[in-house]
Amino acid sequence: MLKTSITAFALLAMVSGCADVPQATEPAPASAPLKITSWNVEHLAERNGEGCRPRTDADYADLRRHADALAADVIALQEVESKAAAERVFDPARYDVVMSARPKGRRGGVCYGKPGQTIGHQAVGFAIRKGIRWTRNDDLSALALGNPDLRWGVDVTIGSRQPVRLLAVHLKSGCNSGRSQSDPDCPVLFDQLPVLERWIDGRAAAGETFLVLGDWNRRIAARGDVFYAEIDDNEPAGADLSIASEGQAAGCKARYREFIDHIVLGSKALTRMLPGSFEEYRYDQPEDRHPSDHCPVSIRIKP
């Protein structure tokens, strides 16, 4: 699909709810809606051949192609080894990259199902298009629960006239539904819940416009999800949350029809989201050649 302007691309996304790979476009002008994206880049390493998803120069070039086609203004990143790794995909001449300050963990070990490959550091961060005003707030280190192998949240504010607070997260994996006490992952995820809720409640109490986005490792849009119900309580006022996908089915992988990557908006942020602008980016490659095991998800908000 050819896109002749940012406006046309935005209108098409609002109608379709998903996006195939478009041609790369120029950044949006200051008055245009901002495209806010979350992308788990799957074990993105600094150097070729390392980590649980060892890559070649051609693989990094393919990721850059998709990053250009995505044409996002702000991208929350997950599973990125370092700033240097992110800058192999997001050109530092075009993007400011900020990564969590979490020290590299001691986890190491062999990648699951991949003998001889060693897991690398997984950090959360942002790539922010140059020209967008932003400030960094303290990382939400409490999400790690004192465990050096759990990820921190990264907290930035974009814009100045009508600022938006963004928290990028990558929550504990392995508890995508329910609350089984026999599953060792569920108690950890639910210990992260009050940390996340305190951040949300703090933003709502301060009257801020905020989003929480990233890899939640949880099907929070499922009917009656107990994790989401606990944070979506509208206490204090303004903490009434909305999930941007609005019940749409995921299409990145044939086996999985429910999202675990989410953009969650507070009530003030929802008023600035362009209706129908949620989209799941689709790679123009067979699933076994996808450059990551997650597809980016995006919305557009009024600046």
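That was protein one. Protein two is written in the same sequence-then-structure order:
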Amino acid sequence: MSLRRRGLMAVAAVAATSSLLLSACGVGSSGDDGEVTIEWWHIGTTEPNKTIYEQWAKEFEAENPGVDIKMTALENEAFKSKMTTQTAAGDLPDIFSTWGGGVLAQQVDAGLVRDLSVVGAPALDSFTTAAITPYKIHGNVYGIPIDAGMVGFWYNKALFAEAGIEEPPATWEEFLETVQTLKDAGIIPIALAGKEKWPGHFYWSYLAMRIGGLDMLQSAATSQDFSAPGFVKAGEKLQELAELEPFQEGFMGAEYSTADGQAALMGSGKAAMELMGQWAPSVQADSGGGIGEDLGFFPFPSVEGGEGNINEAFGGGNGFALAADSPREAVNFLLFISEREQHAKFVESGAGLPALVDAVDMVQDDNLRMVAQSLSEATGFQLYLDQAFPPAVGGQVNDSVAELLAGEATPEEVTEAISITAQTEG
């Protein structure tokens, strides 16, 4: 399966190519004594990521005498907090976890992140469109993805069958009919963690994509104006859904991964659907026990007359970026972990879905393979809106959509609030 181990000549060739590119671009180099320490901050605090990252560091150090990779593993929220402080201070670690989007753009605009468009060239063409898109800022590449994922509907096949539903819905109208059919059968159609807000924004964002298309979203990111008809119509469609009362009782106070939360309802077979990312099956299993072979997946439905299409994906992944003053060995490390052998170890361990082209077969789970296949065939990709935009704007998206779902805001008020925040931040 691996294309990496082609002998020492291949390794030397990659290293030589990288060195020439780095020298030409003025990338920092090792100290005069040949010793170099690379500071690597990441969020791989749990298995299998923890072990995979440690193996990567050890193997790279073994192949590059004199290089010492010093790892700092931080839990997700602690990492974000620490990186906010470091960004404000203008002092980023050599290698750091990133999700791309608005936060990475702010770091790029501050001159803190290395442009990988040239120095990363040996790897860039090997990534899928969905995987690399979040790390493209102002037309250049500032991050290397290690996985990619998308949001879609996870559903309980047994509950669908109990309600007499033979196929997952492909259009929004069919989806609303499915919700009503489940309700009529006494089944909770959708589990939703309303308290955490971010799961709710998936609905509005996907509807905006399907109705207005990716161009509308990209235009709004530039103009800081979210009043386009497609955004308003997305709110109207979401209102249609909310009026059916499709969610569990008390959903606005529910969390995602707690014992009585969204994932647990799905994992215990008490709800028929949830709109969630590729991590859903594992969280369902941890929270509610999991429903095994009854679990299925289908993409977010199309909207009749919409500019978007069902092959455009919404989601995100994990990647790494480099500080502007990082040593050349840090670039070489990113090239190393992008090699197919290293990527195969990562995917086959269950750490994430593939970011490389022609890598779907690395995925062992049938449902996750379906997600990976959809990603590999995606004609367009949109990063989660609460990550694609600056933090304040992403937060406003989450807050406003939550108010819409609670019946406390109109579709027009949602777009107005987001636009005001975007223009204030801009």
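The first strand starts at residue 36 and ends at 42. Keep this in mind for the problem set.
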